[in-house]
Design a protein that fits this description.
Blueprint lengths: L1 H25 L4 H24 L4 H23 L4 H24 L1 E5 H6 L3 E3 L4 H20 L1 H6 L2 H24 L4 H22 L5 H24 L2 E6 L12
Antiparallel strand pairs: 1-3, 2-3
Helix pairs in contact: 1-2, 1-3, 1-10, 2-3, 2-4, 2-8, 2-10, 3-4, 4-8, 6-9, 8-9, 8-10, 9-10
């Protein structure tokens, strides 16, 4: 009961903080407050996508929950920024759905979310751990993203708002996905959290140097706020006993539930 109450309080805190910050952001805020609001907002879209992909509930409930969440978050974001353009709604949609899609792939082929007691007693599950090879691969992928962004810089300078929206959603998704790996895995909690913050710093450079949009401090503030809020929120989930455990195939429990 205490675990459920903690998760409910966490969800309510996100809603209240989002509405409060959005209200002040809507009334001509300084840029620093706007950066904080956007970072907080997209931590919420990432959490919604993570819940939609990994929650232990049945897929109809998760589908309805994500749909209701998008129906709430999209208008809230547009209202807070005073802009009802389709580009903002697309950014909210992509940042949520892509995270949910990645989490579904993890759920189907790699790991599932379980409480600690279940994970300990399960003979077909072991802790989800990443080696140095995985970190090197992650660094390589990030380097490729930055390199491609620089290579395509002339294209982005001539492209419409859609290219900017797609790139920005990729930044939010990168932080959202890696935060799950950092907080819901079994080992190296502090080290992995630092990796997530570092990824936030790297992705903050993409809009400034590859797309030449906005000032660097604005994007750094936004991405660090998103990463920090995600890490803190998932730490609460971790304290409630949830972990990602690797799925073993061909053993007694068989294939995991198909969402």
């Amino acid at each position: 009961m205490n675990q459920k109450l903690s998760l409910v309080i966490l969800a309510l805190a996100h809603v209240l903080c989002g509405l409060t910050t959005g209200f002040f952001a809507e009334n001509g805020p300084p840029e620093i407050l706007l950066a904080i609001y956007v970072g907080l907002f997209f931590s919420q879209t990432s959490l919604l996508g993570i819940w939609g992909g990994l929650a232990t509930l049945g897929w109809p409930i998760r589908l309805v929950g994500v749909t209701i969440g998008l129906a709430y978050l999209g208008p809230q974001f547009c209202f807070s920024l005073g802009n009802w353009g389709s580009e903002l709604l697309l950014l909210v949609f992509l940042s949520t759905v892509v995270v949910a899609g990645v989490m579904l792939v993890v759920r189907w082929f790699m790991a599932r979310l379980e409480r600690t007691a279940m994970a300990t007693n399960s003979v077909s599950a072991e802790g989800l751990q990443f080696s140095i090879r995985h970190l090197m691969l992650l660094t390589f992928v990030i380097g490729c993203i930055l390199g491609i962004g620089r290579w395509l810089q002339p294209y982005f300078q001539r492209a419409d708002q859609l290219a900017f929206i797609l790139t920005l959603s990729l930044c939010f998704v990168s932080v959202g996905v890696t935060s799950v790996w950092a907080l819901l895995g079994r080992a190296h909690l502090i080290l992995r959290s630092c990796v997530v913050l570092f990824i936030g710093l790297l992705t903050a450079c993409i809009p400034t140097y590859s797309l030449e949009e906005g000032e660097l401090w604005f994007w750094i503030t936004m991405m660090i706020v998103e990463a920090t809020v995600l890490l803190a929120s998932l730490f609460v989930v971790r304290l409630c006993g949830f972990r990602l455990v690797r799925t073993s195939y061909g053993k007694t429990t068989g294939r995991p539930e198909v969402p």
